[in-house]
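Researcher: Please translate sequence to structure tokens.
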Amino acid sequence: MTRSIQPPRWRLYALFLLAITVLLAGFAVALTAYSHFPLSLAAFGEWWQGGESLSTPTRLVIDIRLPRVLVAVCVGANLAIAGLLMQAITRNPLASPTILGINSGAACLVALASVTALGDLLPTTLLQALIGAMIAATLVMVLAGYTSDRLIHPLRLILSGVAINALLLGATRAALIVADESSFGVLYWLAGSIANSRWENIPWLLPLSLFGFTWAWWLSPRLNILALGDDVASSLGTNVISLQRQCASIILLLTAASVAVSGPIAFVGLIIPHAAKKLLLACRAHSYQLLIPLVAILGAALMAWSDVLSRAVAFPAETPVGLLTALIGAPFFILLACKRRT
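Model: Translation complete:
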């Protein structure tokens, strides 16, 4: 008589408890650290009591810091989930949302709108970034062959993303050369920053993030089957083409929403899925039902702590948070590439 081997539940509980603790600690520090005014979490108590005139530190926490940290948390979770899905459908551990050219598409249209009459037709950066991201993703999907009913080879999708990415980067550079006087603002946005986050971003970013997370988690049983291979998944009744299209739609939705509010932030979608898989393997577990919430928590935590570091590096000046994630992610990417070569 054999018994099924189940992962120790206490390890999983401990792992998720630790991840949530790191996230909450980052959230609290990002709310209160590195300010010219002494900030504390007691500001929530003053705000809750609803005094007629709130103090300046309380207004800073509620009006400036809280939406900024919420945006950081949503962006981190979105990019981490998008990266996990990207690696699942391409079966390439080096894949990330950047490979689809979504970041480059959003950046390209924002740069073009800043120097042409396109800015009058698309008056907000959010709209420009969303449309640019969708155009780029559509080009990649068409070039990769998603309009046909055939199975798509993962390598073809990656090569399509590289080609479209190179094309859009060239167009962005050309736009910046033409812009000249107004190029500084575009350059700062291209570096990836959440410094200009406002409460106006939350009513659309948070629902989109929750919708994308729920959709991805709903697909998780079929992603477990897809991990066995396309042929095996098809023989078990999984519609692989439909699953790939749904994953691509989630990647587009989450990445476009994130880029629209924060600019292109790289490497979150590459680092976090690998870290989450390692942690789950240490608990002798590997399931997308566990991976998806774990990468969301870890991605949110990474962005919250990166936001803290972006203020700490050159305080009182701020460094774009995208530079911090690039400094963290580039060595990780090189290490991962070298490991695969050996």
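Researcher: Any highlights?
Model: The chain has a mean pLDDT of 81.
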